[in-house]
Amino acid sequence: MKRTRLSLLLGLASSIALSAVSFPAVVNAEGEEDAAAAVPAVDISGEPIYSDDFESDVIKGWSSLGGVAEMTLDTTDGHESSTSLKITGREVSWHGPSVLLDSCFEEEESYRITGWVKVPDAKEDTVVNCTLRFSDSVNVDSYVGVANIVAKPGEWTYFDGTVETPEDLSSTLLYFECQQDATVDFSIDDIKIYGKAPEGAAAAEEDNSKKAGVEKYEFDFENGFEEWVSRGDTRLIRTDEKQNSGNYSMLSTNRTRCWNGPSVSIDGIARDVEYNYEASVLYTDKKADDTHTFLLECQYSYNGTENYSRIADAEVTKGEWTKLAGSFTVPEGATHVMLYVQTANLPEDAPENSETLTDLVSFYVDDIKAVRSDIANTPEIINTIKTMDSTTLLLIIAGVIGLIILLVVIIRVIFAGSNSDDEESTASDKSEGINDVMNSLESENSGKKAPEEKKEAPKPEDKKPTEKKAEKEEEDKKPEETVSLKKEETAEKKPAEESKSENKPAENKKQNENKPASNGGNNNNNNGGKKKHKKSKNSKEESREKEVFGIETFSYDDPDAATAADDDSAHNPDSPFDGF
Q: Which residue, among 299, 335, 331, 337, has the nearest Cα to 52 in the 3D structure?
C-alpha cells in the first residue's frame, strides 16, 4: 500500500479526538485509576473470554491499522514473559495494532479490558489510547474509549477499563493508537477481556477452528451486508437500485481516498492453497470518466507485517457491470486475511490529496466469490455430494438402488408379456399354415380321386396305450394281407395279358419301331432303357398314413405305366426277340 494513500484521515481523527472525552478511565504509571468508571464494574476473578500474551511463534489475529506501521514479536522485552507485541514505523496518530473480536462481544453488555503498555524510547509521559470500534447492522461505526493510558518512559503501565456495548452490534475492533505523538513506537502485552461471552461463543470458536479450510465464500447481498465492513472512510449501503444478479448489490459511497471501499474477512480460507476470486463492479456517475481501473485485492498480516496483494484489475466502462477475476494463494502463517475492492491507486509522484472525482467515484459491487481452484474445476454434482452428511448420502444411495431394481422388474415383466404374445402368434401362424397346406393338397387330389369324407386325424400323443397296442397288431397283419392281394391280382391279370399279347404282336412291334430312342438313341444304359415308375400305394396304406400322420397322400405315377408290359424287351425296339 502506497504511503500517499495512508495519510492522516482528518474526519476519522476528529471523531476519535472528540470521543476521547468520554473515556471512562485514565491510568497512571502505578496503575491507579484517576477517574471512576462510568459503567458497571465487571469481575475479573474468573477466566477471561479473550487473552493474548504473544508467546507464540507468530502473531495471531492482530494487524496494523492503516497498513503502514510494522508489527513484530519482541522477544527481548515482555511484561511477565519474554515476548511482547511492538509497533514501529507509525506515520499518523491512529496507526497501531488492531484485532477483530466479533465473537467476544454481545450487544448491551458490560465488558472489562485489561493489559499493559510500554513506550520504550519516550523522554516524557506519553498517552496511549485503547479504543473499541463498534459497527451496527447497517455498517455505521461508533467509537468508545476503553482507557487513556499515561505511560512513563521505558516502564510497563497497567490499564483497566470497562465499556458497555450498543444495542445493535454487528462487528467489534479493538485497537491502540497514540494521538500525542504520531511517530512514537510502543509495545503491548497480556491483553485480556472479561465479561459475558455471547451465547454459543464456544460453538462459534469451534466453528472458526473448522473454518481453516473453508472451500468457498459467496456474497450476493440478498440477505444483508453479509459481514462486509467499510475500509477507511466510506459508507456502505445495501441497495436494490442496481444489481448484477438477484435483487440487491452493495454501494460504496462518500469515499475520501482511493483505497476506501468495501472489505470482508476471509480468514477461514486454507493457507498455501490456490483460490479463484471474482467480483462484479459498476459505476454510473455522469461526471466521472467513461472508463476507470478497479482493483480486487487481498490484505493479510504475516509475522506482524501487513501485506497487500493484487488479485485482479480491470478497466471498467461506465454503466456496465464488469467482472474482476483472478487467482491467489495466501501463504502459510498469514493471519487476518481481508478481501476488498477499490479504485486504482494514484501514481507514486502524485501530490497528496490530488484524487479526482473519478478516483473517488461511488461504485456498486455484487456476486463476489472466493472458491478453491480444485473445487471450482470439479463438477457441481460432485461438490454437492461432498458437502452431504453420511446419513443423507446413504439414503440417496438406497433410493437409487431401489429405483434400479424397480426398473429391472418392470422391464422383465414387459418382455415376458411380449414373448408370450409372440409365442401365441407363432403357434397360431403355424396352425394356419398347416391348414393351408392340407387344403391345397386336398384340392389337388380331388381331380384324381373320388371325394372322401374328411376325417380329423387324431394326434399320436392323444391315443391311449390300449389303442396303440391294437394298431400295432393290425400293422403286423397287414403285410400278409397285402401279399395275398398282390398274388390274386397277378393271377387275374396274367391270362388277359397273354391273350392280348398273342392277338396283337405286330401292332406292338410297330409301335416299338416308331418310338424314338431315349438318351440320344442309346438304350443300352444301366437299366436297359426301362422306365422307372413309383408303384402306387393301395388304399389301405393311404388310409393308414392319413390316420397316423394326419396328412393326405398322393401319387406321381405315370398313368401309362399301368399298361406297360412286365417284359423289358417290349420296350426295346432293338431287342432280337420279336414276341410270339
A: 335
Name the residue with higher pLDDT: 472 or 414: 414
CA 312, distance to chain mean position in Å, is 28
**For all residues of the chain together, what is the average pLDDT?**
76
DSSP letters for 439-493: HHHHHHHTTTS------PPPPGGGS-HHHHHHHHHHHHHHHHHHHHHHHHHHHHH
194-205 pLDDT, tens per residue? 998 887 655 555
Helix or strand (DSSP H, E) at 340? strand 334-343
Residues 6+ apart with CB under 8 A from 25: 33, 34, 35, 37, 147, 148, 159, 160, 161, 162
Distance (Å, rounded) from C-alpha 84 to C-alpha 75? 7
Rg (CA), the chain: 57
Q: Which amino acid is at 354?
A: S
C-alpha cell at 199: 451465547
CB 128 within 8 A of CB 119: yes
**In the numeric block, which cell numbers belong to residue 458?**
387324431
Query: Which whole number is the average pLDDT over 210-222?
Result: 83
Within 13 Å of residue 233, how many CA atoms lie on the same side as its CB? Answer: 17
Q: Is 362 helix (H, G, I), strand (E, B) or coil?
A: coil
Per-residue CA distances from 72 to 31, 252, 304 (Å): 26, 33, 5
Contacts of 433 (CB under 8 A, 6+ apart): none
* 77-91, 221-235, 523-537: least confidently modelled range: 523-537
How long is the chain? 580
Cross-strand partners of 52: 191
Contacts of residues 473-479 at CB distance under 8 Å and 24 or more positions apart, as own/partner, are 475/544, 478/540, 478/544
3-state class (DSSP) for residue 533: coil
Nearest in space to 558 (alpha carbons), one of 534, 523, 574: 534
User: Which candidate, 321, 323, 305, places its Cα nearest to that of 313?
Assistant: 323
DSSP-derived letter for residue 200 is T
Which cell numbers hold the place of 494?
Answer: 396274367
Q: Classify 380 as helix, strand or coil.
A: helix
Antiparallel, parallel or unpaired: β 141-151 and 26-27: parallel
User: For residues 261 and 468, what is the distance between their CA atoms, to the nearest angstrom?
Assistant: 110
Cell of 343: 479504485
Strand partners, 340: 263, 297
Q: List, for residues 128-141, the tens digit of each pLDDT value.
A: 999 999 988 887 88
Q: How far apart are the first and last CA of the chain?
A: 147
Q: List b or e across 176-208, with b for residues whose CB sees 16 or more CB atoms inside 10 angstroms.
A: bbbbbbeebbbbbbbbbbbbebbeebeeeeeee
Q: Please give the DSSP secondary-structure letter assigned to residue 178.
A: -
